[in-house]
Amino acid sequence: MNRILKPGDTIGILGGGQLARMIALAAAPLGLKAHIFAPEAGSPAFQVADAVTQAAYDDHAALEAFAKAVDVVTYEFENVPVDTAAFLAGHVPLHPGARALGITQDRLEEKTFVSRLGIETAPFAEVNDEAELEAALAEIGRPAVLKTRRFGYDGKGQVIIREGDDAAAAFAAIGRHPAILEGFVPFEREVSVVAARTEDGRFAAFEVTENEHRHHILYRSTVPADVSPAVAAVSAEIARRIGEALGYVGVFAVEMFLVVVEGTQGVIVNEIAPRVHNSGHWTLDGGETSQFEQHVRAIAGWPLGATERRGRVEMTNLIGDEADSWHAVLEEPGAHLHLYGKAEARPGRKMGHVTRIFAED
Amino acid sequence: MNRILKPGDTIGILGGGQLARMIALAAAPLGLKAHIFAPEAGSPAFQVADAVTQAAYDDHAALEAFAKAVDVVTYEFENVPVDTAAFLAGHVPLHPGARALGITQDRLEEKTFVSRLGIETAPFAEVNDEAELEAALAEIGRPAVLKTRRFGYDGKGQVIIREGDDAAAAFAAIGRHPAILEGFVPFEREVSVVAARTEDGRFAAFEVTENEHRHHILYRSTVPADVSPAVAAVSAEIARRIGEALGYVGVFAVEMFLVVVEGTQGVIVNEIAPRVHNSGHWTLDGGETSQFEQHVRAIAGWPLGATERRGRVEMTNLIGDEADSWHAVLEEPGAHLHLYGKAEARPGRKMGHVTRIFAED
């Protein structure tokens, strides 16, 4: 279902966290209103939205009223229940659509989809029981990573199986859920491409970004990434092909491993995120258009914005009590503070981020 | 009354128009909530605020509840009723304060204040009746501008008196309100300085901006202005001294006429606006810190942000149906659209603006 929005229209957003909040903040200068649908009281996005529905994702009455009140629906997280997405899509345009959600919610489906496009991934195999796990380990070797097919994020729902580790214990550790075993990729660095696609096939990618994780959570992104021009071009082309094959509408991220084989850099796709992405936060101050504005433009059926960079950019997450440094950030010339309006700074919780723009080397 | 805010605190804003809206949008990334107090249903700022009070400015019960719900109060327009300001200031810090409001609400007080600082203004005289007007005209000469002392903006409440014009008719035209007669300044251009001051006396000015008006409404601002380095320095110094003398807290604008006497540029102060200002909108994309973020930092008692410019910047207002060009603006690389969420595009109504950033010449 297609619809081109006009100023004054309303974007419905499922989820009330920082990504929804930053989408809402980007929608306003474009003349669009935001309506947030989230179950949690005090959701950060509620603070900046024109309208709010606090309800469960399976509350069909609330979903129906929400669908009637908005002109398009998008979401900030890939684990939108399939039923919720299907119900909404019956009433109002849903971007990104059910196909993108279905594939990216399942690691096995996702890896299969990517490799069928002829794009390299880690070797992988389906695991439904101990016997399949043993067979997969024999094929893929150790170390390998066992991951639940669904509902994993920030390192949750996965376990590394090394030489000597008990496979059955590893399967138990992830709750014996349907899983995927992935070969361990000896990568140099992690990179990502954040890109946008419109319903009529226009595409624009931000520059490939280099990402540093700590404790499985993104710690820092830097642009430009230290990659060869060939890798930069290939990464963008991979994103374009994935977007095309998904019939994708909106902003998405492709997380990749940078590998070096015989001195030559290459990339292996790790994961697709069907949403704005932490590794694209640098675009808020460092890009000509932010990923959030780009997402709004894409789902509105509007022209995509310019993706140029304003300098060398570094984005650092503020995790847990790191957000206590807010005053020091405000004192630092050229640093831009982004706090998410969360009341409680729990360990591991993303409380905000800082972007720093430097003159090009 | 001083209070240093912390993330999670709430800024109360009187007025629900585009300036309040852009202050609220700037407060969010700093972790602050916005509570808008405005009488008009459907106020643009309501769309992006955490909380809203729709009530009259003389509704003391509503004002008291508002004051209790917020940590500081600011405003988007200088015509805040004195009673409203005084009532709020008795409950919660009000920035800018009563002194700045009192002086800037009255053109005669304002001109007197500025000229007592030894800063040049147009020649002016108090006018309360026809006899005073005739005396003032005899002293100042024609052409001259007769303005109501209070409640004028965008060219409203003023009339030019030229050779042969009937003085009594001019006085009648402005409703025989207490007035000020100002000498006509043969200016080359109009410029302004937007600056911020904190309660403890820190000060930061954005670069002097050149402003082009059409039909008494700002049409375009450009930075850098075509002024001499001496004028640039003097303009910032004028703003600093005015801020200091007012004990000002927050962002304010000083509108000035650029005059050329015997080949040398000079400035004459025309008006002080005790608020964020249309001629500072270019800072939203063109400045390292926007005037809106700067205002929030100042009233929060926080460090002021960097005032560097990101290139040559042009800000163009979208007045009335000019906002219909929104789609063309979105198609233009490097143009940034800012719509104000107003439902109806009446003639002369500020509907939005566009900033364009160009590489430095």
UniProtKB/TrEMBL annotation, chains A, B:
Protein keywords: ATP-binding, Ligase, Nucleotide-binding, Purine biosynthesis
Residue ranges constituting the ATP-grasp domain according to the UniProt record: 111-300
Positions of transmembrane segments: none
E.C. code: 6.3.4.18
Alphabetical list of InterPro entries matching this protein: ATP-grasp (IPR011761), ATP-grasp_carboxylate-amine (IPR003135), ATP_grasp_subdomain_1 (IPR013815), PreATP-grasp_dom_sf (IPR016185), PurK (IPR005875), PurK_C (IPR040686), PurT/PurK_preATP-grasp (IPR054350), Rudment_hybrid_motif (IPR011054)
Superkingdom of source: Bacteria
NCBIfam families: PRK06019.1-1, PRK06019.1-2, PRK06019.1-5, purK
HAMAP family: PurK
Subunit structure: Homodimer.
Function: Catalyzes the ATP-dependent conversion of 5-aminoimidazole ribonucleotide (AIR) and HCO(3)- to N5-carboxyaminoimidazole ribonucleotide (N5-CAIR). Catalyzes the ATP-dependent conversion of 5-aminoimidazole ribonucleotide (AIR) and HCO(3)(-) to N5-carboxyaminoimidazole ribonucleotide (N5-CAIR).
Assigned protein family: Belongs to the PurK/PurT family.
UniProt-recorded name of the protein: N5-carboxyaminoimidazole ribonucleotide synthase
Gene name of this polypeptide: purK
